[in-house]
TrEMBL record:
The keyword Cell membrane does not apply. Residues 226-307 form the HTH araC/xylS-type domain. PANTHER family: ARAC-FAMILY TRANSCRIPTIONAL REGULATOR, HTH-TYPE TRANSCRIPTIONAL REGULATOR RV1931C. InterPro entries: Class_I_gatase-like, DJ-1/PfpI, Homeodomain-like_sf, HTH_AraC, INH-QAR. This is GlxA family transcriptional regulator.
Amino acid sequence: MTRIAFLLVPGLHLLDLAGPAQVFSTAADHRHPYRLSYIADQPDPAPGAPGQDGVVTAQGLPLRADTAWPDLTPDDIVLVPGWRWATRRPHALPVSPAAARRLARHHAAGGTVASVCAGAFALGQAGLLDGHRCTTHHELQDTLARRHRRATVVRDVLYVTDDRVVTSAGIASGIDLALHLLAVRHGPGAAARAARSMVVYARRNGDEPQASAMLRHRAHVSDAVHRAQDLIDTGYTRPLPLGDLAAAAGVSERTLTRRFTAATGLTPLRYQQELRLERAQHLIGQGATLEAAARSVGFTDARMLRRLRSRPQPPH
């Protein structure tokens, strides 16, 4: 069971929280083992104020949450939603010192930390942006770069991943981040199913080389190609004859190849191989052997995987 622990601070944006929470909740409905937890943090209380067990969002909705942190394992994710920047005092700490230490400790133990929008400043407070690539809302990028000079702020992208530090831009980009994490852990088909259940227009291009292939190649408006991609996304580990893809798309094999290449820059086969490669790379990063990873994603042995890993990757 993977726990997604949301660290909630006063003034947080509802969609920063609700978007990723809905993605992982939907994944749990689809029998992926996720449990969601919510932790209230009070980083900058008024002098003499009593302890609280909730926060008020930027949209005025009060939220109740636990104040005690759950036990976390390296498989778990701690995610910090962003907040309304203008409501904070200029030099206020993003999160409490205790919460910052928790973030740092979780990452040091091998866990993943993530943020949406201004939540990146909490990761910075914990020292987790030093030496890493990161991003945030476009209106806060200059401030993040000034405050954390040892970080590399990647501008105007949806999300960035770097050594289990995952940061995203503002508000709705938290959905893209969560779908990416889902695709990395369970394959692009799982992310596609969650997106469809949420009625999400899951075709946003992150403009980020580490973005999931499923989202990276969905920045087009060809319905026929999207239908073929849906089939590949959910069945990329098995053989997918071009004729079957063309039939699902409602076009001829020649037309599908032409449209697919024009829309994504890849042939259907190359797209399937990219999904296999991305998943295999993740499995290898988690300790799987090359041979085991190759077989897990549908190759009969590791030779093709070796060739794919050695050849230049297409531009993103």
